[in-house]
């Protein structure tokens, strides 16, 4: 039987949602909004805060996990994604509001992004459990590769459209038009969500929603090791998309449209990576691909280090190549990591395992851009030239990321591929989470 023949009903609607949702979030949370914030005078710390909002507000998934089995996955996602569209509308009209100072626009942008990510963080707790219940284990690698391909094509589409709109001098109207595309895409994505079937019966959702103490989850070795491994990786890549863009603006002096086009090459690379993993991931397992992705990512960050140090020329072609390879590495790692997570979480209390995983790894993903942004602001004008070598704040930043990526590579060997279903003691199953979630 071909793998495609056992894809679940509604799989194409999942892919449609992934495409249009990606167009929306790549505009609202990606380079276009970073460039808009930078045009309003945002510091590195503020840019880091914008990047941190999405992963840090994932903490709301701990609360959401307690209600998923009552509301159902589809209803939960629809409610959250529908409500957050209001804040996409606010961002779209913000550049055109008259009589506002630059600082007032920046604060309103931060407020709208907070509202967007607050609702997204709460409702996203249903997405991974929904997919895990919907997609059979034997085709997860192929399905995730295909779905990630739709997502990356959506991100690429968003950047190409943004670059086309923002060609030349960028005024308020261009920013509003780009954010308007994000708003329209968000609305279309909701249509696809409505067509995805509910994946579990109320009884199965009840089993997935059984509360498990945090201590029991963190003491489960396959889960704990994977949690630590992913958190370190998120610390490495959590700020990369923000500060490479800032580097190209501040030191590279690239135009906005050029930055968007070069950023789009990362999604071309991601599609290439997914084409490589799709037919192989379910056969070889996740760990070999985690090693490949991490090794390549360390090399890409090393390339940015050489670029920032002045040892490589700041040619657009070279920047595009780094973005392409970075996208390839990130896609290979991402799909392999999602697959190993789905296979390492037991059915009993699944919602809570996924929530804890997303929140804890999100601390690394969200804390990293804020910490690195504060460090970059503190280093400020540092620029020491030693012959052909330049020591500046970006050189220090990229060097630190290379070290962390190499350390994370050593953690792959401790991960469990296809961990057995854990048997929790009755006291663990019956208890409520020990950490406060009210």
Description:
This protein has 438 residues and is an all-alpha fold. It has 21 helices and 2 strands. The protein has helices at residues 11-28, 31-39, 44-56, 61-64, 68-71, 73-93, 102-123, 127-134, 140-165, 172-194, 202-208, 214-218, 221-237, 240-250, 256-277, 281-284, 287-308, 316-344, 350-379, 393-409, 426-430, and strands at 383-386, 389-392. The protein has a two-stranded antiparallel ribbon with strand order 1-2. The radius of gyration is 21 Å and the shape is globular.
Quick structural overview:
The chain is mainly alpha-helical. A two-stranded antiparallel sheet has the order 1-2. It has helices at 11-28, 31-39, 44-56, 61-64, 68-71, 73-93, 102-123, 127-134, 140-165, 172-194, 202-208, 214-218, 221-237, 240-250, 256-277, 281-284, 287-308, 316-344, 350-379, 393-409, 426-430, and strands spanning 383-386, 389-392.
List its traits.
single chain, 438 residues, mainly alpha, two-stranded antiparallel sheet, 21 helices, 2% strand, globular, disordered C terminus
Helix content: over 70%
- Count of beta strands: 2
**H-E string:** HHHHHHHHHHHHHHHHHHHEEHH
Question: How much of the polypeptide forms β-strand, as a percent range?
Answer: under 5%
Q: How many helix segments?
A: 21
Strand order within the widest beta sheet: 1-2
The biggest sheet amounts to: 2 strands, antiparallel
**Overall pLDDT metric:** 84
Which word captures the global form?
Answer: globular
CA distance, first residue to last residue: 47 Å
What's the Cα radius of gyration? 21 Å
Point out poorly predicted stretches: 1-5, 419-438
Class by SSE composition:
mainly alpha
